[in-house]
Design goal:
Layout: E1 5-9, H1 13-25, E2 29-33, H2 36-46, E3 50-54, H3 62-70, E4 80-85, H4 92-98, E5 100-106, H5 110-128
Parallel strand pairs: 1-2, 1-3, 3-4, 4-5
């Protein structure tokens, strides 16, 4: 079975490090970006199986990133998990237009993120069978 690739985008280095290690230890290939524009370019190049993105990032917000990728033929079906500070509300329209499947409030447990990743990738593989 081929390793699944996850694009992790966050402008907080410690979040990139902690979540990357958790995902890599679970057997995923992880590529990281520190801003929305870098994440957009990496997603177009690598076409990951899943995107985990922060809501507030330089250059492109997580919502803008997901919406732009939804308009690209190679990335339109990639599901996303949005990480957000408590109090930020992501509208149902933004979730739908960006293929945002889950929203996780900060602070979060890396274990919680990993459980969401397993759940979404399992659902995606069942849906593609």
């Amino acid at each position: 079975m081929q390793r699944k690739t996850i694009l992790l985008a966050d402008d907080e280095t410690h979040i990139l490090n902690v979540v990357s290690i958790k995902l890599q230890n679970a057997g995923y290939e992880v590529i990281t970006a520190e801003d929305g524009q870098e994440a957009y370019e990496l997603a177009r190049q690598r076409q990951p199986d899943l995107i985990i993105t922060d809501y507030q990032m330089p250059l492109l917000s997580g919502v803008e990133l997901c919406s732009k990728l939804r308009c690209e033929p190679g990335t339109c079906d990639i599901p996303a998990i949005m990480l957000t500070a408590r109090g930020f509300v992501i509208s149902e329209n933004d979730k739908t237009s960006g293929n945002i499947k889950q929203v996780i409030d900060k602070p979060f447990s890396p274990r919680e993120v990993l459980a969401s990743v397993h759940e979404l990738l399992e659902a995606a593989s069942v849906g593609s069978d």
